[in-house]
Structure to design on (120 residues):
């Protein structure tokens, strides 16, 4: 999955925790992109089975939730690791956004085990 698609899924997951209904304008504002860009991305994600769009309400399917959760989990793990190493939280957030997309499942498991072992 492309990085931008992962960003959309993660953003929709986070927005759905704050709002009863997630709309294209909410996603555009959160990601700093145009509403037409959101429309194109949402259509593609809908066609691939990651989203359900109903009267402007955008929701994750089960598959979409699983993928969004993976990205969010990677992001949160990287932030914890970087902050635990002394990286300022603002920098850790930015770097985690980049790293969450390239981190392999195997490396993620090792980092997760390391963090558990170190009680971070």
């Amino acid at each position: 999955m492309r990085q931008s698609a992962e960003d959309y899924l993660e953003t929709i997951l986070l927005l759905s925790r704050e709002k009863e209904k997630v709309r294209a304008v909410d996603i555009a504002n959160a990601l700093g992109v145009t509403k037409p860009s959101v429309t194109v991305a949402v259509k593609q994600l809908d066609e691939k089975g990651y989203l359900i769009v109903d009267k402007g309400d955008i929701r994750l399917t089960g598959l979409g939730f699983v993928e969004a959760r993976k990205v969010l989990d990677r992001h949160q793990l990287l932030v914890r690791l970087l902050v635990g190493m002394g990286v300022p939280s603002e920098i850790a957030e930015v770097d985690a956004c980049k790293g969450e997309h390239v981190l392999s499942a195997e490396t993620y498991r090792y980092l997760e085990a390391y963090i558990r072992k170190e009680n971070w």
User: Anything to note?
Assistant: The longest strand covers residues 51-54.
